[in-house]
From TrEMBL:
Taxonomic superkingdom: Bacteria
All residue ranges annotated as the EAL domain in the record: 652-906
Organism of this sequence: Roseateles aquae
Protein name listed in UniProt: EAL domain-containing protein
Coiled coil (UniProt feature): none
Length: 915
């Protein structure tokens, strides 16, 4: 996102403000530090100045004291001198005594009026002419009584350098009578300065008012010879110019070439009158004075710099952190905005999907209130969305279902048991106008703000139900009598046998044939015959329990299935016998048809079965057989099937033995029958098992497969078939004509349900490396009736391996229709019985059509088997069928022949289909 200029300015402004504050704080800090340091320096200087002043004062006192003492000595000499008879001797003695008493005096002299030494503490000076010396010339020129003449330093006969204090002497008439002189001892004054020297960085000096130094420490010969006042700006000049007896100055010292704090004093002791003054001064170099302060300043400076740097770095880091936080905040804001935009787009997208979905979507909260509903659902239920929102969902259910639904939801919320979640179910819905309609409903659950929200995906399945009902009616019921037909009977019989295998209970089959029906038909016409059959059906239904099945087997034959006759064979036998006798009685009553009384009797064959009995076809055969027994015994009677007496049984046993041998010696062979698309392309083949028996010839699989299923050898046979089929698929892959062809393999229900079938398939596929999508497993509906959930699970697992599924003989079963949509199927196979009757039987055509439509609605391919003629094929194409298998295209054939067929297919198909 781009920042607008004001934002940028204000952020720059925001960034610079802390720096301004920091600079201000630092400036204040530095100023305070500097003020403090300055005051410290001032205090230091003041303190040092006071120290120096005290020192100078001490020196001043010493020098002043010496001068007072000398003045006293000179006064003494002045007083005594007139009394000297022998000035030399007497004077010398006195002067020597006085000089010894005064440590600051080097020598004492008395000069006559001409300047000759009359007497001296140093005898060698007596008689010398000193008339040129300043200590003589000055008082001589202006002799003043009581005035002490202080000479500038000069080289004397005794010393390198001395200063003299002299007084003019007068006689009684107050005439000039000579002078008395005291020459100061330079060593004494140097020692004095040394004693008072406080430190190595201090110099001290004793100078004459005229600018010459008398004593200097540290000693410097050069400076001793110079006149301090000769160059302007000297400390002495400043001191004298101040006119004060004491001064404290901070200034560059010419003497030491540095900045000095200098305390100076003019020696003016009280009671001393002198023509010139001596000045004492002590100077200390400023750096030495300010050494500690300099260190303090350095420390403060360093600390200040460190603090400033620290503050600057801290501020920089803080600002960087702030910028980082700001950037992150912006990024977060940006990503939140993006996420919100994405969310919005996603929500719009989802809403658009919901709005345009064909299926209805309804969400309800845990209280069963409708939270949202999409347009498809509104259309389905005939409401506007506003009419349903926040309403109880029971509004959309038949009255009886509402309570059950509430119970489901509360059970689910209490226990979490997912009876309603994730399961697609067919339920009833209620439209606004009260109409009840079938719908499919799949419920899932999500959580919204911690509360469960249930999402119901609904679809109006009225059409599908209608198609299913039509198929069911057409496929499973006899149109004339409304009774179940043989397909439904077989299906129920198979189910009854399966449940008998589980619970060990007996059942019975009653095979009923109407005696002399053919003659009624022939004499009274088919219409009368039909009505007769309808009347029989009615009586049968009325005479039996609702749970018993009465089916029309065909023509004038009916079959009754009695179930749950108990676990004792004898009781079952009696029960079946009683039922048959009742039917003999009921059906033997006269019939009034079209005002004609008609009399008819039935012959009934009975077979009682349990879990150990054979398959359904076998039982029917036995019942049929028994019925013939009854007929042969004179009609209008019943007969039980006696298995032991049947020769068929022996045959069956022999076949079974042969079958076991065939399994052991692998006497089987696989044939391949072509499967062809509507445009004549070869799609693949179905593998069909053949048993070329050494003596019986080819035994039909329709005969030996049920036997193999009964005896359990089917698993071995089936495994062999699958191995062969995989090997064949691999062989086809190397031939251009057969590469890519699919191969359908029949799986018997026993085989499919055997334990470990999944791992058997996994191993087989891994071993052979066959392209799994080319292998199609054909299941009959009977494979699916038992334990539906585990069948669905197993099919799902196999599907995940890549295998495909075709539902064989579709339309002949019943129970699978209800859960057909839940099976992972790829193809439905229209049973050949429908195809066979397609041209002649409208019913068969209607069933084929319904199957094709059902396949379409479930997204499954549909193949028709048993296509024998071009007419059947054309009719099926007209109904929308996609693929065909049957003698019209090719008979089942050995592998080599099929390979040849595939090679010739393009030309052959063109010939056949006239393309
Ligand atoms: N479990 C297994 N069952 C198998 C296996 N091989 C076959 N079978 C099943 O046996 C039943 C009889 O099979 P078959 O005698 O081979 O009959 C098949 C075809 O030969 C026959 N057919 C094909 N085209 C036509 C035709 O145009 N007219 C006509 N009258 N018959 C034709 O139909 C049978 C096709 O069977 P299907 O497609 O599987 O329904 C049969 O139920 C086989 O399934 C096996 O290896 N395992």
């Amino acid at each position: 996102m781009r920042m607008s200029p004001p934002d940028h300015d204000s952020s720059a402004h925001r960034r610079s403000r802390p720096w301004l504050w920091l600079l201000l704080a630092l400036a204040v800090g530095w100023a305070a530090a500097w003020t403090w340091l300055s005051s410290e320096r001032e205090a230091l200087r003041r303190h040092e100045g006071e120290k120096l002043a005290a020192l100078v004062q001490t020196l001043d006192a010493i020098v002043g004291q010496q001068m007072i003492a000398i003045q006293g000595a000179l006064q003494t000499v002045e007083a005594q001198r007139p009394g000297w008879r022998q000035p030399q001797q007497q004077g010398e003695a006195m002067l020597r005594t006085l000089a010894r008493a005064l440590p600051g005096v080097r020598a004492l002299l008395v000069l006559d009026t001409q300047g000759q030494v009359l007497a001296s503490s140093e005898p060698r000076l007596v008689g010398l002419d000193m008339s040129e010396r300043p200590y003589y010339t000055t008082p001589r020129r202006r002799p003043q009584p009581g005035l002490l003449y202080v000479s500038p330093p000069f080289r004397s006969l005794l010393d390198e350098r001395t200063v003299t204090l002299s007084r003019a002497l007068f006689d009684a008439e107050h005439h000039f009578a000579g002078i008395v002189v005291a020459a100061l001892n330079p060593a004494y004054f140097s020692l004095m300065l040394e004693t008072a020297q406080p430190s190595a960085q201090t110099w001290s000096a004793l100078a004459h008012q005229d600018g010459m130094l008398f004593a200097l420490l540290p000693h410097d010969a050069d400076w001793m010879s110079r006149n301090l006042l000769a160059t302007p700006g000297s400390i002495l000049e400043h001191h004298l110019a101040s006119g004060q007896p004491a001064s404290l100055q901070l200034m560059p010292a010419k003497l030491s070439q540095d900045l000095r704090l200098v305390a100076a004093r003019t020696v003016q002791p009280a009671g001393l009158q002198a023509d010139r003054q001596l000045i004492v001064a002590v100077g200390r170099s400023l750096p030495s004075v300010e050494g500690p302060w300099q260190r303090q300043r350095l420390s403060v400076g360093l600390v200040g710099v460190a603090l400033s740097l620290f503050a600057a770095v801290a501020l920089t880091l803080w600002q960087r952190r702030q910028r980082l936080i700001e950037r992150l905040r912006r990024q977060q804001l940006r990503s939140e905005r993006q996420a919100a935009a994405q969310l919005k787009a996603q929500a719009q997208h989802t809403q658009a999907i919901l709005d345009h979905m064909v299926d209805g979507v309804i969400t309800i909260d845990a209280r069963g209130r409708i939270d949202s509903i999409n347009p498809a659902a509104c259309r389905m239920f005939g409401y506007a969305a506003a009419e349903l929102l926040n309403q109880d969902v029971s509004l959309l259910m038949p009255q009886g279902d509402a309570a059950r639904h509430d119970q489901y939801v509360s059970d689910y919320l209490r226990s979490g048991a997912a009876r309603i979640i994730g399961v697609g179910r067919d339920v009833d819905g209620r439209r606004k106008d009260g109409q009840i309609f079938p719908m499919s409903l799949a419920v899932s659950r999500i959580d919204r703000e911690g509360e469960p929200l249930f999402i119901g995906l609904t679809r109006d399945i009225t059409e599908r139900k209608r198609a299913e009902a039509a198929i069911e009616q057409l496929a499973f019921y006899d149109p004339l009598t409304g009774l179940p037909n043989r397909r439904l009977l077989l299906d129920r019989l198979n189910q009854a046998l399966a449940s008998s295998r589980r619970n060990g209970r007996h059942g019975a089959l009653l095979f009923i044939d109407l005696d002399n029906f053919k003659s009624l038909n022939d004499t009274m016409g088919h219409g009368m015959g039909d009505r007769m059959l309808q009347a029989v059906a009615q009586r049968l239904r009325a005479a039996l329990r609702s749970e018993d099945t009465v089916a029309r087997w065909g023509g004038d034959e009916f079959v009754v299935l009695l179930q749950d006759l108990g676990q004792e064979r004898q009781r079952a036998h009696l029960h079946a016998e009683a039922a048959a006798e009742k039917l003999l009685r009921v059906l033997g009553q006269p019939y009034l048809i079209d005002q004609h009384n008609h009399h008819s009797t039935p012959s009934i064959g009975i077979v009682v079965w349990n879990d150990a009995s054979g398959g359904s076809e076998e039982l029917l055969k036995h019942a049929d057989h028994a019925m013939y027994e009854a007929k042969s015994a004179g009609r209008n009677r019943l007969a039980f099937f006696d298995p032991i007496s049947q020769a068929a049984m022996a045959e069956l046993i022999s076949l079974e033995a042969d079958l076991r041998q065939a399994v052991n010696y692998q006497q089987f062979e696989l044939y391949y029958q072509a499967q062809v698309s509507a445009d004549g392309r070869l799609l693949g083949a179905e593998a069909l098992l053949r048993w070329p028996h050494p003596s019986r010839g080819f035994v039909s699989p329709a005969q030996f497969i049920p036997l193999a299923e009964q005896t359990g050898t089917i698993n071995q046979i089936g495994e062999w078939v699958l191995q062969q089929a995989c090997a064949q698929l691999n062989a086809w892959a190397h031939e251009p004509a057969t590469a890519g062809l699919s191969l359908a393999v029949n799986l018997s229900a026993h085989q499919f349900r055997q334990k470990g079938f999944l791992s058997l398939m996994q191993q087989l596929l891994a071993r052979t490396g066959v392209p799994t999508e080319l292998l199609k497993l054909e299941l009959t509906e009977s494979a699916l009736v038992d334990d539906v959930e585990s069948v669905i699970g197993l099919m799902g697992e196999l599907r995940r391996l890549g295998l495909r599924f075709s539902l064989d003989d579709f339309g002949t079963g019943y129970s699978s229709l209800a859960y057909l949509k839940r099976l992972p199927l790829d193809q439905l196979k229209i049973d050949q019985s429908f195809v066979r009757d397609l041209v002649s039987e409208p019913n068969a055509r209607a069933i084929a059509h319904a199957v094709i439509q059902l396949g379409e609605s479930l997204g499954l391919a549909v193949i028709a088997e048993g296509v024998e003629t071009a007419e059947q094929r054309e009719l099926l194409i007209g109904l929308g069928c996609h693929a065909f298998q049957g003698y019209f295209h090719a008979r089942p054939m050995p592998a080599a022949a099929f390979a040849e067929l595939a090679r010739q297919w393009p030309t052959r198909a063109a010939d056949k289909l006239g393309q």
